[in-house]
Amino acid sequence: MHLPFSALGAQGPIELRGAEGTADLSLGVRADEVITRATLHLTLTHSPAMLAELSHLRIRLNGETVAAIKLSKEEAGRAISRDIPLDARYFTDYNHLRFDLLGHYTLECEDPQHSSLWASIGNRSELELEVRRLDLQNDLGTLPAPFFDRRNSSRVVVPVVLAASASRASIHAAGVIASWFGVQADYRGAEFPVSLGTIPAGHAIVFATNTQQPAGLSLPQVKAPTLSLIDNPRDHSYKLLVFSGRDEAQLAQAVRGFVAGEPLLSGTTATISQVTLARRKLYDAPRWLPTDRAVRFEELVSDAHDLEVVGRLAAPLKLNLRLPPDLLTWNHPGIPLELHYRSGPLPGSGDSSLSVGINGQLVRAFALQGDTSTQSLSRVVVPAVLGTARQGNESVLIPAFRVGSNNTLDFRFVINPEHQGSCRSWPAETVRSAIDPDSTIDLRGFLHYAALPDLALFANAGYPFTRYADLSETAVVLPETITRESLEQLFFILGQFGRHTGVAATGYRLIDTAAARTARDIDLLVLGGPESNQLLADWQRGGNINIGTDERHLRNLSAVTNLDADPLKSERPRSSDVEVHLTASGMLGALVGFESPLSAGRSVVALVGSNAAAVASVNDVLQDPAKSAAVQGSLAIVRAGQVQSYAGDPVYYVGTAPWWTKVWLRLSRHVFLLTLVAILLAVTVAVGVFGALQRRARRRLDGAAG
Q1: What's the CA gap between 460 and 497, in Å, rounded?
Q2: Which candidate, 500, 109, 590, places its Cα nearest to that of 320?
Q3: Is 682 helix (H, G, I), strand (E, B) or coil?
């Protein structure tokens, strides 16, 4: 097994700067695997200015020094390769590979941060591992392992096994479990290969009733909702997690019992006697920041030590912020942070600073004083709308899309103590800096109100379906013709919803296209298939787009060229009076969003394509952050791996806001109309004032005449 450094968290070449430049990579080892042999294939380039007799690169694994590479003069300035064997006995469940540059450029007094002290570890570096599989006991207490292992940072793949003629109730139950595994996978993402009627090799999840079971698996008849962890008959080193029941109702109860009581499970078998799941409330997704209170930073990290750094030029502290996707930031100066920080003590102030950024954009920078051992307090505003946010004498401009559903807030400490004289320096590892866990971010006062269709909200947060984290107001439309590909799409989407919210989708409905034609007062997610294409064509949607196997129809749409545009805060592209019908072969997938023709204020989002492979290409876009960023407007066409978004009329709104806010929002998108209204108001006020003055003057004249 070969693991490139990108799979270990490196975003590019690893740059080591200064006399004590360091970098760390992390590697987890699954519970059902053990590493028997490991080799580090390292590609390295280092500065020609460093002294070979004093400079080297030290490599440590879990604190143990495993190698020291001499940085020779002859090999300086060009890429060199080294193969370094690693003792397999040093590997544990969680492993840290550390690189330390110990460099010097002179025998005299030197600046430890001199520009000539550098080394770069290249993209081609990788770990080569030999892994032996372990035989695990059949114990439900080990769940979610081995199907999901938190120590594994790669994409989660959970095979799903259904009977060849599985009912929709069984499919619904499998969808709930897929969403639960999506919660566990989180940033990794999850895929769910489907086997109909057969048991695949490897670990898998099986759904069965007494009358519907996959071939090749002899399951006992059960009288109650049952969970079992058994050996895979094809290979006993792999496991099957079996959900079973006497009938479909018991199968559903087994699934609900697992979702609610997984921490209580142990042994090889468990039966579910009773389970009650309350419906989730609006906007209570655990992974979204609440808007009814201030949130402390300690709630956003797993350990308070994640808010501390050591060193003068330490890597920035990062906080991941998931905001409700329909947060109305219009007419707000920004999102307030109450920020507490510490650093030092420092010998003088120098040019030390703390900079605050969001999504790679600078928000504000603070100068750190010479003695900052006591706590400092400052109020920061993260600009959330297009405009200028002034903080003292600072001005920051952050486009609105920078504060979206998924955000990264970063804090970078730069410690530059005053010069202490010849041959004197301040040891880098004595400088500790921290953001206090009691710092807060506050979303109170922000409304939930969104202009739709806006497929960016769906791609990034599953909106509007995830307004209720358990999808209790969502119906998923699965075509009458059920295929393996359509099931994989269903489970993938439900896994994505679980990833966004942190909650299993226990409340969704699963219907066919016939039932969708009468599905009122509910949001509809339409999955791909010929029947789905026909359903969209019958609903017309103004005829904006119809995609069949060969026939394609497009009209009244304009391309979205500005990916920074916010549909609430800027004028949408006007629909163009263009219509085209054509016949073409080849793959063409699309995401389509529009207001439900059955219920005002309800949404329809469809994932359609010319064939199954085209629909799968839409899934590929949704799990690729770089591509999903291009999904916007009311239509996103996926072709040859590329995305083009379009916007059209009509627009509808979801959420709650005061009537005056709704009026100003609509007027703000139309400058001419806003100007006209302002003129009319000014004229009306002027006429009213003039009339009042005339009447007052008349009364005074009448009084004087009397």
Answers
A1: 10
A2: 500
A3: helix
